[in-house]
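Morning!

As promised:
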Amino acid sequence: MPELTISGDYGDFKTVAEFYDCECEVDYIKHKQTNPTCDKCGASHDEAPDSRLNEVLELEYERRLIIDDEFEPCVRCGGGYDEMYFIDCDPVCADCITEKEKREEGYSDD
Ligand SMILES: [Zn+2]
Ligand SMILES: [Zn+2]
C-alpha cells in the first residue's frame, strides 16, 4: 500500500494527494508520480481532481486480490510463500521439497 496523504475532506469523502481522476470511464484513478498524464484521455494531474480516498483503497484492495490469485500454493501443504520450487510444473514449497527432488530438478548445484 503506498503512502497516502489526505488532500481534502468533503464530509462524505476525502481526497488523496497522490492520485488523480482522469476522464476515462474505467481505470480513471491514476498515480501522479508514475502516471502524471493519462495516455488514453490526455488528462493531466495538475488539472484533474484528486482521487477519492475510498476509491483508491478499493483499487488497491482489488489489485492485492489479483496478485494473490496469481500465487500458486504448495501442492503438498497448501502454503509456502517465500521460496517455491516446481516439480513437473507443480509448485512445492521449500519445506516440502526433498534434497533428492531438488537435485533431480536441477535446483541443487552439487
Ligand atoms: Zn484517462
Ligand atoms: Zn509445502
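The chain has two domains: 6-70, 72-105.

Hope this helps with the figure draft.
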